[in-house]
Structure formats: C-alpha cells, structure tokens
C-alpha cells in the first residue's frame, strides 16, 4: 500500500493502492477542518449548555428554556457533524468500475457505482459561478445527457484533481481514442 | 514573437456570440487575428440562456459566460461591485496583462474597466457607437462614459466622426483616442461569378428594421423609385418593429411584385442576398461606421447611403453615392447611382476592397495601441482620484466615493482570498495552420452560430 499526499490549506489528497487478489485504487479528498471554526462551534454549544444549567438552577425546575437550549446545542453539534462531509473518495476497481463515496462525520457513507463500460471519459471541467471559478472532475457517461460529478461537495484545486483524473483515464482507456491524458493536459 | 511582447488580453463586453451584430463580429474577428499574432486572448461576457461557464471557440479562443442574467437590451444589471470577485478571479487565473472593453452601452464592460483600473491593470476601451448629447438618456449615458473613460489608458474609435463624438461626450484628451476602422472579410464577401443580367435593376436593403436604420425614409423612397423606374425591384432583408410600416407601404402602392420582404437574414446568407442585386441602399440615421456598406462593396455592389456619422469615411467617392437623410435627396442619389451603374465592375471593386480593408491590419494597429497602453505610467489611487474629481461638481465627488469603495472592497477581497490561492489556468496551445485564412475562421463562427 502506497500513499501519495498532496495538500493545501483546505484539502488533503490521499492515495491508497490495495494490491492482492482484488486490487483497488482509492483516492481520497479529505476536508482539513479549520480548527478555529471547530473551536467556535464547540464553544457556542458549551455556552448554550452552561446557560441552560444556570437557568435550571436559578428556577429550580426544568423549564422550556432549558429544554430549548439543550435541544439547540445538540442540534448545532449534530448539524455540524451530521451533514458535513469528512471526505470524498473515488474507488477505482480495475476492469469493473468506479465507486464514488461520500463519508460523513456521522459515519454515514453514501456510495454510487458506475460500471467501467458506461464511462466514456473522465474530464476536468472549469466551472464559473457569478462570483468565482473552480475546477471539477466529471465523468462523461454513455447515452446520458448529464455529467456525473466525482466530488459532489468538495471543490479541491486542480493540482489535487490531476492525479485522480490521470488514474481514471488510465482505468477507462480502452485504446479507442487517440488522445492520452498527457496530451489532454 | 518574443514572449516579452506577448500580450494577455481580456476582452469584455455584454455583446458577444451567440448574439450577432457589429460589436460581436468585431470582438470575435479581432480576437482571432490577435491569437494568430501570438497573443493570448480571453473573452468575458454574460451568460446567454443556458450558455454559461467556459467555452472554447475556433483557434483556442476562451470565452467566459459569467452567469449574470441580462435585464435590458442584453445588458447585465449594473451592480457596481457585484462583478468584482469574478473579474478579479479571471484576471489572476488567466494572468491577464491588459483589459479591453467594448461598447459604451455595455454595463459589464464599464464595471470590468473600473475594477481593472482599481487593481492597477492597463485598460483600453473601444467605442462602437455614436450617441446624442441632448436627451435625458444620453446625458446619463455620457456621464457614465465620462466616469469610465476618466481613467482609461487608451481609447479606440471606429471612425473619425466617432472619435470626435467620444471626445466631446467623455472629455477624454484627443491624443489618447485612436481611430481604427472595422474591416470586412473579403474572402467571404465575393461578387457573383456572373452579374444578374437583363434589364432589371435590383436594389438591396439589409438592416434591422428599426427607427435608427431610417426605415421611415425607405417608406417614402421606395414607391417614388418604383414609380420612376418600372425596371427596378427591391429586396428588403431584416426584421424589426418597423417592418409593418414597410408592409403597409407595399400594400398601399400595390408593390407586392416589386418589393420582396425576406425577413431576418442569418449572417451566413447575407452574401447570397447581396449578390442578387446591383445597388445597396443604406438609409441609417446615425452610424459610427457601418460594416454593411463594406460587405456590399466587397460583393461588388454600388452603394447609396445617407451622409451620416462615419459613413462618408468608409468608402472612396467613386464607390458610394451619398445623400442627405431626406427622401427627395435620396431619390436623386438613387437616380445618379442607376445612371453610373453600367460603368461599375464588381470584380474590380472587390479587388480594391481587398487592399483597403483587412482584419489582420486592424489587429496590428490594435497591437500598437496595446503597446502604448502598457507604456503608460502607473498611478497611485490619489492621482487617479484627482482625475475623477475633475469630472463635475457633484458627479466628481460621487465618482471618487465609488472608486474608494471599490478600492476598499478589493483590499478586503485580497485578505479574504489571497491571489496565491487562485490557481493559474494552464494555456492551451493549439497548432496553427499558417495557411488557413481568416475566412475559414469566419465560416467556423457562422457554423457555431447555426449550431446555436
């Protein structure tokens, strides 16, 4: 198993190469959490909790405010960990297909599988929003109008996407097209 | 070409393909010729329908369709500062050295030039239109132009009349304004191998049927000419709100068999309409340059036109008959044109046009303007503010305020998203076939257009 790591301030790229009877080529883009933001979320939740205890001790009963405060601090922490993504992965299973995985902080993993013969070509795409531009890695699928995004949430810089794109090109290259990854770049 | 002289240009305008017109044509063909000269050119415009994001056109011309919706006459809503982040991102990621804005009516162009100046880039502006001084709309428009041009490095106009107009409207020093006329793709507009024979004389009109193009003049001129010359036939191409006026005239004078109305003519079909005629009639009430005249002359047609704006500068006297924008004078001009028609040789006219107008020549002249713009000295914010302050008692202060806020927002953006965090896009190098003429580019443009 080899690991290649590239990183910037927001994202970390990891590469797992599992060899053996069922070789796998796994590429992860991990979100590097902003420690200041983590601290702020926890601090805010803690303050809410302390306030609720204080109110509870002051009144001597479990009031509505206490319940609401507890609920909102729990919601805050839950929403921070529950909906946010920890990492997204592209798992290349040679001669079978590509599995796209989204790993949430809650432990939930959303997977979707695309058979290799359905993939026409992986493409690095430039996207424009009203305020900024970013790159995305997409898969062109046979007889399908829409492109499939390899990473649905994370928007890593192109230098982290290039090794994944090259690996996908190598996995899906059937020798029919004349352009190689190097020429495309 | 050495790398030191290679410019990296961002063309900005609200008007670009897939819409079709003089400005769009100019930006596309100028960009193609600049690409051939070895420069890098990127175009920025607003999104058209679902055409949004990045597209590549012939010759590796990269186009950013920024998803800001147009609100009036293909213009984006003026937000002043809304476009600052995306313009900054594009300027950094494409490593632009110079920003070239087109057309005074384009809000995106004005905003881009303002932000580019704030960020210290050199800017060039091309004005493609003439505009009035007296009505409320013009007064406001001219103030906006004064604001944008107060700090522009160099400006380009398409004719001397247009230069005079721009200088008067914006108060720009005349030595900063260059005149570079438009050109025509002579390879695309060739005369017919055989001229339409017979006794019949066909007069062609191709223009948008709007007030500015003088449709009301046509309504009076056409019946008069048809009455005087039974062998004259008119072909009218184009569509617009004034079309109904022409149709009414046709009914009233029972000229259905003498006046053919084609409706909108796609640009790719303009030549085939032009070569079916002998005389081209242009009745515009205002015109900075008029490319239609060039296209007609390139197809070997004798032109009759109103003497307005930059039109008298376009063609040599023996290729055009000019008239005042008045029906009687225009009838006289058409009479004169019919009388000199036998001595006109379309092929010779085409050959002369070939020598007179060429887009490569336009690109080379524009390149000189870019070189001069880059040689302009860098100015501090205070020096630039003093220029804005001179724009007017109240307007000057307002312009200064707008610029100061822009400057602060730019500084804030630099802190929030440092330039180092914006990735530079790798250049796509296409192998150019040197022998390939611009005509092929143009055909590709038309093909792109038809694919819309």
Automatic annotation (TrEMBL), chain A:
Lineage: superkingdom: Eukaryota
Swiss-Prot/TrEMBL GO biological process terms: GPI anchor biosynthetic process
Gene Ontology CC terms, in alphabetical order: glycosylphosphatidylinositol-N-acetylglucosaminyltransferase (GPI-GnT) complex
Keywords (A to Z) from UniProt: Membrane, Transmembrane, Transmembrane helix
The keyword Transmembrane is annotated on this UniProt entry: yes
Annotated metabolic or biological route of this protein: Glycolipid biosynthesis; glycosylphosphatidylinositol-anchor biosynthesis
Residues that span the membrane, as ranges: 36-55
Keyword Transmembrane helix: yes
PANTHER family: PHOSPHATIDYLINOSITOL N-ACETYLGLUCOSAMINYLTRANSFERASE SUBUNIT H
Family: Belongs to the PIGH family.
Protein name, entry field: Phosphatidylinositol N-acetylglucosaminyltransferase subunit H conserved domain-containing protein
Source species: Quercus rubra
Automatic annotation (TrEMBL), chain B:
Protein's UniProt name: phosphatidylinositol N-acetylglucosaminyltransferase
GO CC aspect terms: glycosylphosphatidylinositol-N-acetylglucosaminyltransferase (GPI-GnT) complex
Leader sequence segment: none
Keyword Glycosyltransferase: yes
Biological process per Gene Ontology, one example term: GPI anchor biosynthetic process
SUPFAM superfamilies, per database record: UDP-Glycosyltransferase/glycogen phosphorylase
Entry's EC annotation: 2.4.1.198
Enzyme class, first EC level, given as a word: transferase
Keyword presence, Cell wall biogenesis/degradation: no
Annotated keywords: Glycosyltransferase, GPI-anchor biosynthesis, Transferase
Sequence ranges assigned to domain Glycosyl transferase family in this UniProt record: 194-340
MF-aspect GO terms: phosphatidylinositol N-acetylglucosaminyltransferase activity
Pathway(s) where this gene product acts: Glycolipid biosynthesis; glycosylphosphatidylinositol-anchor biosynthesis
Coiled coil: none
PIGA GPI anchor biosynthesis domain residues: 46-135
